[in-house]
Amino acid sequence: MSGDPLPGDAAIAVRGLTRRFGSFTAVDHLTFAVAPGEVFGFLGANGAGKTTAIKMLIGLLAPSEGEARVAGHDIGREPDRVRERIGYMSQRFSLYEDLTVRENIALYGGIYGLSEAEIVRRGDALLAELRFASHADTLVRAIPLGWKQKLAFSVAMLHQPAVVFLDEPTGGVDPVTRRQFWEMIYAAAARGTTVFVTTHYLDEAAYCDRISIMVDGRIAALGTPDGLQAEFGAASLDALFVHLARGTAAA
Q1: Which of 77, 85, 100, 109 has CA atoms 20 to 30 A from the CA of 124?
Q2: Which residues contact 130 (CB under 8 A, 6 or more apart)?
Q3: Which positions of the chain have pLDDT values less than 50?
């Protein structure tokens, strides 16, 4: 794609990113940038194109048009380098339920290219931080959902990625666990990791530094939660989301 270079200091830089499936355009010319250490909320109704966009950003799906750099690497020319620098937690639970907690840590540590000694060191630190040491040899299927989600996030961070993508990470968990999960997100961002998160919980959108709202494959709004409410004259993020997604009054 012609034009000025993408900003080199951004953790994620996207310009004109498009994905078509035949005559259907799932993602339509997205352009935005995310700063290092930013918590960026990527919102939209089901079918808005969020998951397709994420698949392109993590190097699993080639764009039909446009360009993007993630953690300093081009998603089209360097998808393997992108995957080395990112973590990913899918909306479906992403660990192996027939393996123990410790076995999952070892498996993903190996996938991320960590040495055996590093896997042990970081794994022990992870278990201590989550207070999971007594459950290290428990099958993942036997632990509560909230614990599974926190474990999945910690494993996605095991190799200290520059960017972590979280696709609806708190779906189905109780409010206390959701708050604990966001404390983990803030801690990761404070260490310099960029957090790119999708959620259907509009109260969680308020926790983000900035949010975007996708409608029909395009970004309909982009800014801080408070700034967007003011810009659209919306009484709440819920009202703003409904206004954009359904075309109803914002107030």
Answers
A1: 85
A2: 147, 150, 151, 154
A3: 1-2
Measured CA to CA in angstroms, residue 161 lies from 127, 146, 170, 194, 200 at distances of: 18, 23, 20, 9, 25
Question: Cα separation of 85 and 107, whole Å?
Answer: 17
Cα(117)–Cα(215) distance, rounded to whole angstroms? 46
For the record, the structure tokens of 51 come out as 């998951």
Q: What percent of the chain has pLDDT over 90?
A: 79
**247 CB neighbour count, 10 Å cutoff:** 8
Find the Cα–Cα–Cα–Cα dihedral 126, 163, 147, 172, rounded to 10°.
Answer: 180
pLDDT at 155: 96
- Two tokens, residue 235: 């009484």
- The helix-helix angle for 101-111 and 116-130 (nearest 10°) equals 130
Name the one residue in this structure whose structure tokens are 């290092």. Answer: 36
* CB of 34 closer than 8 Å to CB of 193: no
Instruction: Starting at the earlier edge strand, list the strands of the sheet with 65-70.
Output: 24-34, 12-21, 65-70, 73-74
Position 4 scores a pLDDT of 55
Distance, CA of 73 to chain centre: 17
DSSP string for residues in 116-131? HHHHHHHHHHHHHHHT
Give the model confidence (pLDDT) of 99-151 as tens digits.
999 999 999 999 999 999 999 999 999 999 999 999 999 999 999 988 999 99
Residue 56's Cβ-count burial label (10 Å; 0-12, 13-18, 19+) is buried
